[in-house]
Structures are given as C-alpha cells and as structure tokens.
Design brief:
Elements (H helix, E strand, L loop, with lengths): L14 H23 L3 E13 L5 E4 L39 E13 L5 E7 L9 H14 L4 E6 L9 H4 L7 E6 L9 E6 L7 E4 L8 E4 H11 L2 H4 L16 H10 L3
Parallel strand pairs: 4-5
Antiparallel strand pairs: 1-2, 1-3, 3-4, 5-6, 6-7, 8-9
Helix pairs in contact: 1-4
C-alpha cells in the first residue's frame, strides 16, 4: 500500500525510521541513475560514519574500511587444554565507572563520475539530521558545501527533513516558509553559481529533479516521487508506521495542521 501523503511522508522523519529510509533512498537513486547514465558515467553511494562521544561536542568522521579476519578452527577431535584457577588471588579494581560511549550517524551522498577517468561530476547530498544540527553538524556540512561550490562539481541537495537548520544561505536567508527544499547548483555558471530551488509543502508531490552532467550532455530527470513510493513499499512502511499517533517532531506549520488531520481521518490503512 502507498503512503497516505502525496509527497514526502513526515512519519519517515521519525528517528528510528529515518536511518533505514535514508539508506534505501540513496541506493534507489544510485540504481535509477545507473540505468540512465551509463556507460559514459556511473553513480555510486559515498558513506561516512559520524561518531560522537556522549557529552562531547567534537565529531569524528570515519570512512568504512574493508578487512578479512581468518580464524583457525580446531580440527575435529583435537585436544583442548583446561584452564585451572590461579592460586594467587586476583585483586579487584578500586574504582569502577561507566565506559565512554558514542553515538553514530551514517551520512550518504550519491556521486556521479565519468567512467573512463573517475572524475567527479555531480554530488547529490541527501541531508540527514546531522547535516542540519545546530553547531558542529551544520558547520561541518557547510564547509563541505563550500568546497563543492568552489570546485567544478555540480551540487544537488535533497532536504526531506522539516527540522534543523537549512545549511545553504540562499535557502536560509530569508528563510523559506516551507517543509522541504530541493536544490540544484550548476558548476558551469559563467559569472556566479546560482541555485535553482524547489520549496515543497507536505501537500505537494515531489517533482522531477534535473541532475546535471558534463556539457553538452542533457540533464537526467530524477523521478523522486517514484523512488520514494518504491522505497516506501519495499521497506514495509505501510504496516510499520502508526498513523494514529501524532506526526514526529518538529511541530507542523500551522497551515498544514487541518490538511493533515483531514488526510489521516479519511485514509484507510
């Protein structure tokens, strides 16, 4: 069954749901693009793990590594040696305290490369709560964003989160009175880089978003609505999400409250 919402489903923003949706949505975008841009280009997903110590403001960015651990297993029938208790008493530690704990957040972006040279052409940033978190999170993303805008790489931002700070000045000042924001910034602007902006309300469908490539190749229309619906079905969100509970934080914009109440009251799960 499809989501009751005509566009982005705000219940997907709930913290326990967002991570899996974010992962699947990035993979869906990658697959969609690779069916349309090859063999000249290819798309892949970049994953970064952000680790924060509880109570510590500093964040660490970790990229995944691959490793193989070979474990030598005992052959059947091999003898094992019993460990006997030590005769000397083992002293107890004079102090015990809870160990340092961390929280993790995985950030995903879809990158488009030239197949022959692996030149990065376009980065599609799917914003996460960390990217919009006041303080270290949004500042780290703004530094990354600035590096992209100073390069020859196209920037596409997909912000399907109502909460947090919008990182781009062009969408934050003056603030957009909307729920979601899509943005395309082309690297081939002659004088200055201009952002094409799609403000979206909860009652609006996601549009076809143009994904720029190298000139003179035409844009690839990214069907965000079709991808969202596919991820929703494949993720089993129609039976995982309880639409009888309030919409997850942040608070709804006032003009959206009666519309959502009517929508959910008439929706049959």
């Amino acid at each position: 069954m499809a989501s009751p919402f005509p566009g982005m489903d705000p219940y997907l923003e709930e913290s326990s749901v967002w991570s899996g949706f974010h992962h699947s949505f990035a993979d869906a975008i990658k697959g969609y693009l690779n069916e349309r841009i090859g063999p000249k280009y290819y798309a892949d997903v970049e994953v970064r793990t952000i680790i924060q110590g509880v109570g510590i403001s500093a964040w660490q960015t970790m990229y995944p590594d691959a490793g193989i651990l070979h474990v030598k297993r005992p052959s059947p029938g091999s003898a094992t040696m019993a460990i006997t208790a030590p005769t000397i008493p083992i002293p107890q530690a004079p102090l015990k305290r809870k160990a340092f704990t961390t929280t993790q957040s995985k950030l995903r972006a879809v990158h488009i490369y030239v197949t022959e040279t692996t030149e990065l052409v376009t980065t599609i940033e799917i914003l996460s709560p960390f990217n919009k978190q006041k303080g270290d999170g949004v500042e780290e993303y703004r530094r990354k964003r600035r590096r992209i805008l100073e390069s020859a790489v196209h920037l596409v931002e997909i912000d399907l989160l109502r909460g947090g700070q919008r990182p781009g000045d062009e969408v934050a000042y003056p603030p957009l009175d909307t729920d979601y924001v899509l943005l395309v910034n082309r690297a081939d602007e002659i004088d200055e880089r201009l952002s094409e902006i799609w403000p979206l309300a909860l009652d609006e469908a996601l549009p076809l978003l143009p994904i720029p490539l190298l000139s003179p190749d035409p844009d690839i229309p990214l069907d965000l609505m079709a991808l969202l619906q596919a991820v929703y079905r494949q993720g089993g969100y129609d039976w995982r999400i309880d639409y009888t509970v309030p919409v997850p934080p942040p608070d709804l914009r006032i003009e959206m409250i009666p519309w959502i109440q009517t929508l959910l009251a008439t929706w049959e799960n």
